[in-house]
Amino acid sequence: MNTPWYKQFWPWFLISLPLSAVIGGIATLIIAMHSPNAMVVDDYYKEGLAINEILAQERAAAELGLSGLLRYAPGADDVRLELMSPNADAVPEYLELLLVHPTLADKDQSLRLEAAVRGRYLAAMPELSPGNWHLIVSPPDGSWRLTGRMVLPQGGQARLTPGV
């Protein structure tokens, strides 16, 4: 009783193993082509040069003795910043707050913090997705910068310091 090969179990089993690898490879290729990795930097040389500028801004903030305390209460419409500076001239009329999502650049937000009282700033807070957000505060001219982190939507306080 000789049955043809195509009616037996083992040939189909042996064919299915490499066939499933080929199908999985094609599926992986399609997924990779339709969703590029946003974390990969196109021009790493320019990114490397920008690090020196960032370090210079953080050194400038440290030399000026700047630090800050950012407060956000869940459900509140605004975010408040208290900028501590021994030099009153280092306090500009407004500051820029950059809320950076840790993995998705398209979720980043930029806010303008307006001076309410000398050294205290206020801005309307947009609705943000939950997560551990990186905070960057700098003056309009970009001469210095302070950084910190805040978990949203829990809010609370975030200490902003020069990164050096």
UniProtKB/TrEMBL annotation:
Superkingdom, natural source: Bacteria
Membrane spanning residue stretches: 12-32
InterPro entries: FixH
Database matches in Pfam families: FixH
Entry keyword set: Membrane, Transmembrane, Transmembrane helix
Protein's name in the database: Nitrogen fixation protein FixH
Species of the source: Thiohalobacter thiocyanaticus
Lineage: Bacteria, Pseudomonadati, Pseudomonadota, Gammaproteobacteria, Thiohalobacterales
